C-alpha cells in the first residue's frame, strides 16, 4: 500500500498550513509510504511548505487543480489516494487508523464522516455546523447520497469531472455508484471540517455561484441537482437526527429556513437562465 494525499488551495492563508501540518505531524512511525501533493491554484501569494510537493498552476478552478494533482498521484504509483479541502484537518492518529480501515474492508472507496466546527459563534455559523453534522449518521444509499467518498483505490477511481466547479467532489461517488463500485461509509475514522464564518448573504452568494456553474456546465440535469440536495437528502430523516431536532429546535428551524431560501434561490437561478436562453 502507498497512500497519496491530494489537497488544493487558493488564497487560503494559514488555513492550508493547518491542514498540511495535521498531515505532517502524523508521518513518524508509519509503516507505509505516503506521497502528499498540494496544488496551489494560482494564489496571490504562492504557497511554500518544505515537507510536501507543492504544484503551482495558473488559476483555473478546483476541478482542474484536482485533475493536475491526480496526475502526480498516478505518477507516484500510489495504490490509494485521499483528497481533502484546504479547510479540513486530520485528527491525531488518523493515518494509522486509515490503513486499518483499508485492510479490514474490501471496498473501492470510503466515505469518511466529517465533523464540522468553527471558531465563530454567530447564528448562521451555528446553523451550518449543525446542518453539516447531520451527515455523520451511518447512511449511504444509491446516488442520492450527498457525501463524497474521499478515500479511493486508485484503479477504481472514475475521475474528476473536468470543468465542473460546483459540488465536484461528489461526482466521482455518484459515477462510482452508477458503475456498481463498492462504496462504504466508515465510522472508524473522521475528518474535521472548518466551516469558518457563515452568514446567510455569503451562503446565498456561494450557492448562487455553484448553481450557475452546474447549470452552465450541462454535467447535471436540473432534476438531478434537486433530488440530491436539501429536503430530498435521506440523512435528514434518520432517527438519530430526529432526536437532534428535538434537542436543538432553534437550530433545526434554522436549517429548514436555510434550505427553503436556498431552494427558492436555485429555482430563481434556473428560471433566469432559461429566460436568458430564450431571449438569445
Automatic annotation (TrEMBL):
A Pfam family assignment: Glycos_transf_2
Keywords associated with the record: Glycosyltransferase, Membrane, Transferase, Transmembrane, Transmembrane helix
Class of this enzyme: transferase
Positions of the Glycosyltransferase 2-like domain: 5-136
Top-level taxonomic group: Bacteria
EC code: 2.4.-.-
Stretches that traverse the bilayer: 250-271
Keyword Transferase carried by entry: yes
Gene3D superfamilies per UniProt: Spore Coat Polysaccharide Biosynthesis Protein SpsA, Chain A (3.90.550.10)
InterPro entries: Glyco_trans_2-like, Glycosyltransf_2, Nucleotide-diphossugar_trans
PANTHER family: GLYCOSYLTRANSFERASE, GLYCOSYLTRANSFERASE 2-LIKE DOMAIN-CONTAINING PROTEIN
Protein name listed in UniProt: Glycosyltransferase
